[in-house]
């Protein structure tokens, strides 16, 4: 009961929902009630498969490349409550960077220690539905969320702008995911697909999966195809990068694949992830890290009985997307979209820059300078600056 009293007094409670394949409607109701009762906000991404009151999507606004340390400090919770599997968003890193400044209560049915934020103070060895029910049922007075913390977060989250993306894998994902009908299954494979899908608003009641738990690009395509066979009456969508696709392409030959299958293949000629995360350094990185290639899936997809569509710019994409999202195809479909990984990564950075509140731009510039210094080396940067007569202060 001490914990209930503590939660009643807490001003800033952040519930972090990890990846869960199936969250019962009862649990979602309990989470809404929890939100009504305590001064809380709930961080939810699509892989959490939760739709309840008090939730916000941290994917853009809490990304390490978007939020400043100063702003995150202003929004820092007193208590983090977490449950479930993988937490994909940068919120995990931001909490880790601020470890020790908050309590972390972990809901973990088997009682195993899991300390992603290095701030673990309590483990609740129970299921999440029991936890939320227990806390709501055992409040003494009628406690009510004053919503100050929630509103602070929401007003920040709402600064993220609707952005006019250039031709890129972001454009392709946006215009597909926002059309997926309710009741569908969506599988994301893995980093860029998850990150970018979470930028946009999906229709309600879409089950979202990813085998990000293993962090492997192998196995995504076969996992999805297995799911689609087990759910043959459910429209089933996969968003997959080229390296991940070519890893598992053998599975495309399975004889059981139904016409409920739609695969959006983002062929940006390699691993965009390494441009996005700053690992790309020079031409050798394309050989050894991003695995740049010029392979296409067309021949194999057709060979395996798929209806094949492709696009290389906005016009060809806009012409094909209607057919791809249609439900009357006799065959499974594969839509291969050709973009360039370096400009795909840049499109995301430009979106962050355009959306970031103004006072944070200088902070981002500072981080950029730091990154250049750390990557190129301080001495070289100073030398170039001297030659050009630029002061770095
Ligand atoms: C089995 C395995 N090998 C290597 C990696 C490292 N890795 C992480 S992301 C990535 C690139 C994925 O490229 P792609 O599937 O084309 O998606 P993109 O990043 O371009 O969206 C790689 C190779 C991994 N996660 N798993």
Descriptive notes:
It comes from Bifidobacterium pseudolongum subsp. globosum. InterPro entries: THDP-binding (IPR029061). This is 2-succinyl-5-enolpyruvyl-6-hydroxy-3-cyclohexene-1-carboxylic-acid synthase. The chain has 393 residues and is an alpha/beta fold. The protein has 3 domains: 1-158, 3-Layer(aba) Sandwich (Rossmann fold), CATH 3.40.50; 169-346, Rossmann fold (3-Layer(aba) Sandwich), CATH 3.40.50.970; 358-392, no CATH class. Helices cover 40% and strands 15% of the residues. Helix 2 runs parallel beside helix 5, helix 7 packs parallel to helix 14 (314-325) and helix 16 (361-376) crosses helix 17. It is globular and about 65 Å long. Bound molecules: thiamine diphosphate.
Blueprint of the fold:
Blueprint: H1 2-9, E1 13-17, H2 25-37, E2 40-43, E3 55-56, H3 69-74, E4 79-83, H4 91-97, E5 103-107, E6 120-124, H5 128-137, H6 148-157, H7 169-177, E7 185-189, H8 191-197, E8 207-209, H9 220-230, E9 236-241, H10 242-248, E10 261-267, H11 273-276, H12 283-288, H13 298-303, E11 307-311, H14 314-325, E12 333-338, H15 341-355, H16 361-376, H17 378-388
Parallel strand pairs: 1-2, 1-4, 2-3, 4-5, 5-6, 7-8, 7-9, 9-10, 10-12, 11-12
Helix pairs in contact: 2-5, 7-14, 16-17
This protein binds thiamine diphosphate.
Structural key phrases:
single chain, 393 residues, alpha/beta, Rossmann fold, 3 domains, 6-stranded parallel beta sheet, 12 strands, globular, binds thiamine diphosphate, THDP-binding, 2-succinyl-5-enolpyruvyl-6-hydroxy-3-cyclohexene-1-carboxylic-acid synthase, magnesium ion binding
